[in-house]
Specification:
471 residues; mainly alpha; four-stranded mixed β-sheet; 4% strand
Length: 471
């Protein structure tokens, strides 16, 4: 049996140079994979309606999220007062994600000369479908992901003791950026571990649990100090049904099932067959890894189960569904378990070697095709709204919009969640100000004002313009 146990010996200059070169190669491949898969979205990146305040930046639109989500790090980012191009923000975000993937892949294969194993793992991490879904909030999540990526990178240069010493600080900051980011930090520590043992695993999980609990308490305390509420009350749009006693917990089991089922389908291009394939691959890879490196398998499965447990507790407690993008940790553990299992099988029989390689390549191909298709699906919305913005660029005064924005074909294909997406998007492209009359009917009684009509059946509706400038 081969279990991962990194040496404590200080590497010589030649070994250090080889490791640096290996890391740069893995990082370069991770960046290339991230940008190639996101290429349909690079020049004019898609962003969700509630990501625009971070782009402009306008903290007043984000303020309520400090109460309802505890996102204090993101709020500080909104205060920066500098607007940078959306494409630059998106490329920086993807580079941070690639740095995270490369760092965790590098430490997973630190003492192996076959750099291509680390490169495959890094690429498999960056094309994660949940990561693609969450990347539409890239302006908001830049500081949080940068912190996560930096902690992962520190795992490549610091000792294990130094790295773990910093975990509580990064867990607190990560939690106040995005709720499941701390699980990415835990994954780095689990993969980074040099001498594995049951006692060490228990200690690490205890440290993470205390750090996570501390992060929650700090967010609660900040909310109490600023908002006068000790806690993080969920926003109305989440349709939460907080559990009242044991009966309430049992009633919320359906929310747990829905959250996990929705994640499985959204990560599998809405294909139940593909979802079952991924689950089967995870199970088989975990068994294969457990046979070859039982402690390594225990560490990784424990991390995955810790994440699943936190999601389950959240669903049971609040009765609110956890969106698929929050499961970003699950694909990460899946990728690490799959590639590490393939690595351990690689030097065995040719049959096992070919089978393991085929499974990794197939999962990578399926994940890549889904990620590329996902980014491509936003192009019509981006093009139509960009053209609209160009027409409106010379308009002065407010422009009234009549009709339902969500009836537009491009809006439905791109899963536009709120009519505000059109208002913010046109402002981004042209600076023009739209008034959504369905939302503000009393502000749309003025005659002779430039207007946009959204006409047609839902799913086929189009823009019709009547502008003062005669466009």
């Amino acid at each position: 049996m081969r279990d991962l146990a990194l040496t404590h010996a200080v590497p010589d200059d030649r070994t250090q140079a080889r490791r640096q070169t290996s890391f740069l190669i893995v990082f370069g491949i991770a960046v290339l994979a991230a940008l190639l898969c996101a290429s349909p979205n690079l020049a004019d990146p898609m962003m969700r309606f509630d990501d625009f305040p971070a782009y402009f930046p306008e903290p007043k639109y984000f303020w309520l999220k400090t109460l309802n989500e505890g996102r204090w790090v993101n709020y500080l980012w909104h205060l920066r007062g500098v607007e940078t191009p959306s494409w630059l923000n998106f490329v920086f975000y993807q580079t941070c994600w690639a740095l995270f993937g490369a760092s965790i892949a590098y430490v997973a294969f630190r003492d192996d000369r076959r750099t291509w194993f680390a490169a495959i793992l890094a690429a498999l991490i960056v094309i994660s479908p949940p990561a693609t879904l969450i990347s539409l909030w890239y302006n908001t999540l830049i500081p949080g992901l940068a912190l996560v990526a930096f902690y992962a990178f520190l795992g490549t240069v610091l000792s294990q003791k130094q790295h773990r010493f910093l975990l509580p600080v990064f867990v607190v900051l990560g939690f106040m950026s995005y709720t499941t980011y701390p699980l990415l930090l835990l994954a780095v520590c689990l993969v980074r571990t040099e001498q594995r043992s049951l006692l060490d695993l228990i200690g690490l999980l205890a440290l993470f649990t205390l750090s996570f609990a501390g992060a929650v308490l700090i967010a609660y305390a900040l909310n109490f100090h600023v908002h006068g509420v000790f806690g993080i009350p969920l926003a109305d749009w989440r349709h939460a049904t907080p559990a009242q006693g044991f009966a309430g917990l049992i009633g919320n089991l359906s929310v747990v099932r829905e959250s996990f089922a929705t994640f499985a389908l959204h990560s599998s291009a809405n294909s139940a067959f593909r979802a079952m394939f991924y689950i089967s691959m995870l199970g088989l890879a975990a068994v294969a890894l457990a046979r070859q490196a039982p402690l390594e398998a225990l560490y990784l499965v424990a991390g995955l189960l810790t994440g699943a447990a936190l999601v389950t507790v959240q669903c049971l407690k609040t009765g609110a569904m956890v969106p698929p993008r929050a499961f970003i940790f699950a694909w990460l553990f899946f990728a690490v378990i799959l590639v590490r299992a393939a690595y351990h099988l690689y030097d065995q029989s040719d049959r096992r070697k070919r089978l393991a390689s085929f499974c990794v390549i197939l999962v990578f191909a399926l994940g890549t095709s889904q990620t590329v298709a996902q980014y491509h699906s936003y192009r019509n919305w981006q093009m139509e709204t960009r053209k609209l913005g160009e027409v409106l660029a010379n308009e002065t005064g407010p422009i009234h919009v009549f009709g339902k924005v969500l009836d537009l074909e491009a809006a439905q294909v791109s899963f536009i969640q709120d009519p505000l997406a059109l208002k913010f998007r046109v402002r981004q492209v042209s600076g023009a100000e739209l008034v959504l009359c369905d939302e503000n009917p009393r502000h749309c009684a003025s005659p002779g004002v430039s207007r946009i009509e959204i006409v047609g059946d839902p799913g086929r509706a189009q823009f019709e313009l009547s502008l003062n400038g005669g466009a």
